[in-house]
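step=predict obj=nicotinate-nucleotide diphosphorylase (carboxylating) n=269
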Amino acid sequence: MVDAIVELIRKDEHFIDFASYPLRGKNVSGEILLKEPSAVVSGVEIVQDVCKRFNLTIQFSCKDGDVVKKGSVAKIFGDAYNLLICERTILNVLSFMSGVATKVRNIVERTNGKVKIAATRKTIPFVGEMQKLAVIHGGGDTHRLNLSDCAMIKDNHIKLYGSVSEAVKQVKKILSFSKKIEVEAETEQMAFEACEAGADIVMLDNFSPQEACRVAKALKEKYPHVLIELSGGVNPDKIEEYLCEYIDVISIGRLTSEVKYIDFSLEIE
């Protein structure tokens, strides 16, 4: 992740940053400022590692996952040229990751610990790992990080295998004991079939809040060991409507598919 960001800065610099080159060798200091009332900061450790690669010293007054208020969050020292070529990229990292973390924290706090809030695989290409890390800093769950993390049987798998039961049966033949099987269920019947076939997790896909709670209750009464996930069409602005004692996880694609930057700036002293 850090290597990719360093490469991005070097590509941005290209041959030379003409506006900054005459300032090389000049030692300067500056502050990174949060311009908004508050935010959950994310990207601190990444920015620290990137700055090291350019011989810049950065001292944050916070750590990843902290709630910070408007004002200074870090002091930075070093060669003016290196600082200036890194400026926009390190601010982008903080703005982007803090935007995800802040959104996640807002939703997590509104659930009062009644359910786990998870991301999905609907991440922005090439920056998905940064987004998943920001989800952790916001207090959420990453969900699976790659296809091998969990055997998730979705609608197209079921069509190709012929049925939920057959899909679970075939996947079980090759799956390690250390992995779980999750089945995406579009109907109550599919959810029960998945449990009967031996799925570890059942995802109720695009259910209304009321229907999801009713089906989850019925599933838990017969299969209490099965984890119930609700996903698809979940409106994070109305997360309270989806809370139900029988639902273990709510996964929301919009945690990472829609990003609002948090405004940070760097000011030279």
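step=describe
The CA atoms of residues 30 and 267 lie 5 Å apart.
step=end
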